[in-house]
Model the fold of this input.
Amino acid sequence: MKMRISACVIVKNEAENIGRWLESMQAIADEMIVVDTGSTDETVAMARAAGAKVYSFAWCNDFAAAKNYALEQVTGNWILFLDADEYFTPASQAKVRPLLMRLEPHLKIEGVLCRLINIDTDDNNRIMTTLVQLRMFRNRRNLRYSGKIHEVLTLTKGRPLELANEIEIYHTGYSTHIVQAKLRRNLKIMEERIAANHGRTELLDDRYFMDIWYGLGDHAKAIAYAKRLLAHEELALDLRGRAYETWASCCIDDKHPAEETEACLAAAIRDCPQLAEFPLMRGLWHFDRREYLQAEQDLQAGLALTKDYPKDTVAGVMNNAARLLPSVYWRLGLLAQWQGDAVRAQECYWQGLQQNRYHGGLLAAFWHFLQQQGIEAADCIAVLNVIYDKQADAAFLAQQLARQNGGLVYIYYAKQAGSSERPVLDCLAAGRPDGAAQLASKQLAFLYRLGLAAGDSKPSLMTALLPAGCEDIERAAQQMLKDMRDKDL
Done:
């Protein structure tokens, strides 16, 4: 009998995300179950067009109820239950079915733990946090969700789960443009649930309130809940690390007194010695305070921990240090440059860009390093083309290099992106103000002659002649035209 995989999701107005979810599941699943809770956008139409089975469910402020309704529709042996704003990475898609086929005969294993990576799509897919989540499990009647919010799958006591560190899922739901509304929604549901239970809270409420208040910017409340969470006896490593990370982030973001921040980070390193994020956070904090010797010691200690992470441990799977690595390698690259070690600086910048090639500060530092080394434009392009896709990433590179007087390298990527249509600004970005002045002078002289011929009745002619994005030149041209007319009169 063929093993069948069913993919499930509950949705409401997820047109922004559902296309990516459907594409990811089409590569893996034998059937797709979409439960709609009241969409008014194109979500349902998109799901049906992709071949999904679409069901309606009246929303009742209960995520578990909606998910359990979806489970009732499943016909497969294994279930993939990702949210609409989650999707398997392309590399992971090909690994899911072989993994489940290997586990199929091992009937005691009920589910699979995967790496869930929170990314910010508004910041070039910057890694925010990573954690372990149960997103794949067997189709069994006893496996059902509980909890109106932050719902969890109820498992059979004593049955093992498989840890699949190689299966990665991206979660975009905490991206900047949507996170605030989601957090306020979660806060309201949690407060309503606690009120209905006469003030009785649940074990993980401190953790969820901590996350909500941190996301909403109330750092005092976030720290209070972090401390409450740390007061729980026998707190799991992942929760202890999360509490310290939130507390330390609040101290750093709000520039608390150095003694308080140092004490928090020292406690985190003492209580979570296997987690790399805390020496890395302290190293970055010391760097910003220009305490460079201490910064380098901490950063190197943190990197050593990340390299020692076994893949089958909680620390290895919940590698929250990954989000810090681009900034870490950036600072280490600068330190190496200042010490005159160009080889080590280059290696640091290279390693950082492998972690996140869209990190603007890191790219700027690498660019200035290349210029300092006297690397020719053609060689710079060759290096960048190894890291970036010269077509897909051209617009990003042109934008970043325009800020760095990128010269001929900027012109190259601007042309690749089809955006090199502003000769004056291109000259300025290329570091040639003399050429920009000559071009601007010709444009203004032409506009002056045209303005004299057209009179004040047709100011839009000047606007039409200027390339898009040259509003500053337009304003300057209009002022110069007025001044020249006044002088002639």
Summary: Strands lie at 5-11, 31-36, 53-56, 78-81, 86-88, 111-120, 126-138, 144-146, 152-154, 161-171. The first strand starts at residue 5 and ends at 11. Residues 456-462, 464-470 have pLDDT under 50 and may be disordered.
